């Protein structure tokens, strides 16, 4: 309640000509989404500036608010209040949730460019005609929009696109991408050009004039850490705080079962079967459920985390954001948490994401004599070829099957000749 937050000044904010009608509900929404009293007061007090700016734009009733109006108000206020204008974005999210303005992200309120319209059209084609996965569609739409915006900035019409224009974009993209990522970028551009050539919007055959960077199969080893390093890293997590308990449970799941970050953030309360002692995982790549035994260590970590930070309604996910606004985690959040953990631990770990824990787990299973088929089933691999990559890391085992050099006596591991 606004009266509880600002017992002496609440009437002033409720009396605002425009936003006074939503001030109480806005404060309740902030409280329900985990904002601290200080952050709530900060946001409520800024409503005075937002109210004045919106009224200057001719908005005098709540029913006149829209995403474009809020977007432009935010753009103007950020010039004057660079550290405060984010309140307008937060207000827009509240108004979306309350159904006062139409659903959608405030960033999309700006006038839709032709590049965005065409990339959205391409995304519909990939979904309805090609049947691509959602992640593939998202990536190709992004590449298409970036490429089309590149053409727009240079005033190049689609019908006039030349190989030099495509080469210019790829050269620019190559400055920020590695060879493997650039190959995916070029694949997205090729797909867009093929689609546009079907109805003559671009010349036919442009997609075949793009060279891709040369990549060699298995040119790099999988990212794996010594198991002692993994256990030391897990022990370095501060489990006295709520965030530490959450991070420890997430990374322990990856190290114990070799899960992907996307699989960890998707775990909800119904996936933990306490009485059966099992954990259900929704594998992203195979789209099939996986039943794993719930170990005592993982079970204890999950219990401590849930006791300290139980998920609030309406969420059922086990791992949620710890900072306001409360919500579901994205896989990128686990990568950021891993990078922060490595910095705090002071350990020299060359990898930037938690996927190295998954590789470390696979190598550990391999060294313990686990069959390759079993490892592949646990890791969610479709083929044995994907799992066989980890054989290259078992260098100690590979030495046992080495062949003698012709003309030289074979020396055993104990130094005896035979």
Q: Which features would summarize this protein structure in a list?
A:
418 residues, DNA polymerase, domain 1, single chain, hpI Integrase, Chain A, 3-stranded antiparallel sheet, 3 domains
Describe the model.
- This protein is an all-alpha fold and 418 residues long.
- It folds into three domains: 2-109; 114-209, DNA polymerase, domain 1 (Orthogonal Bundle), CATH 1.10.150.130; 227-395, hpI Integrase, Chain A.
- The chain is built from 19 helices and three strands.
- It has helices spanning 2-5, 10-14, 20-32, 37-56, 67-80, 86-97, 114-130, 134-153, 163-174, 179-197, 227-235, 242-257, 261-265, 296-308, 331-345, 355-367, 372-379, 384-387, 395-399; strands at residues 272-273, 278-282, 289-293.
- A three-stranded antiparallel beta sheet has the order 1-2-3, with no helix packed on it.
- Strand 2 (278-282) and strand 3 form a beta hairpin.
- The longest helix has 20 residues, at 37-56.
- The model is unreliable at 103-110 (pLDDT under 50).
């Amino acid at each position: 309640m606004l009266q509880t937050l600002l017992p002496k000044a609440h009437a002033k904010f409720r009396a605002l000509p425009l936003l006074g009608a939503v001030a109480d509900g806005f404060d309740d929404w902030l409280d329900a989404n985990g904002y601290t009293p200080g952050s709530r007061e900060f946001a409520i007090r800024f409503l005075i500036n937002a109210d004045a700016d919106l009224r200057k734009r001719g908005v005098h009733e709540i029913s006149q608010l829209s995403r474009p109006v809020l977007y432009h108000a935010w753009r103007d206020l950020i010039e004057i209040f660079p550290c405060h204008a984010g309140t307008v974005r937060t207000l827009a999210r509240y108004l979306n949730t309350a159904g006062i303005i139409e659903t959608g992200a405030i960033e999309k309120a700006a006038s839709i460019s032709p590049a965005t319209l065409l990339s959205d059209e391409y995304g519909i084609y990939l979904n309805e005609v090609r049947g691509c996965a959602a992640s593939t569609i998202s990536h190709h739409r992004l590449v298409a929009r970036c490429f089309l915006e590149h053409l727009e900035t240079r005033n190049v019409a689609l019908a006039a696109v030349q190989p030099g224009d495509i080469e210019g974009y790829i050269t620019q993209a190559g400055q920020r991408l590695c060879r493997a990522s650039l190959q995916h970028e070029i694949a997205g551009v090729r797909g867009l050009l093929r689609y546009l050539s079907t109805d003559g919007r671009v010349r036919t055959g442009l997609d075949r004039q793009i060279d891709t960077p040369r990549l060699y199969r298995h040119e790099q080893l999988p990212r794996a850490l010594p198991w002692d390093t993994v256990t030391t890293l897990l022990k370095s997590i501060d489990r006295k705080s709520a965030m530490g308990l959450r991070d420890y449970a997430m990374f322990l799941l990856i190290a114990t079962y070799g899960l992907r970050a996307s699989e960890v953030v998707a775990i909800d309360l119904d996936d933990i079967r306490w009485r059966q002692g099992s954990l259900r995982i929704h594998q992203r790549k195979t789209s099939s459920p996986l039943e794993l035994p719930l170990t005592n260590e993982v079970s204890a970590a999950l219990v401590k985390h849930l006791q300290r930070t139980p998920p609030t309604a309406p969420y059922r996910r086990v791992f949620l954001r710890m900072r306001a606004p409360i919500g579901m985690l994205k896989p990128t959040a686990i990568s950021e948490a891993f990078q922060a953990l490595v910095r705090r631990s002071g350990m020299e770990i060359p990898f930037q994401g938690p996927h190295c824990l998954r590789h470390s787990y696979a190598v550990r299973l391999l060294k313990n004599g686990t069959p390759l088929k079993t490892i592949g089933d646990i890791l969610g691999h479709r083929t044995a070829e994907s799992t066989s990559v980890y054989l290259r890391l078992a260098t100690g085992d590979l030495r046992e099957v080495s062949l003698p050099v012709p003309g030289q006596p074979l020396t055993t591991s104990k130094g005896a000749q035979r």
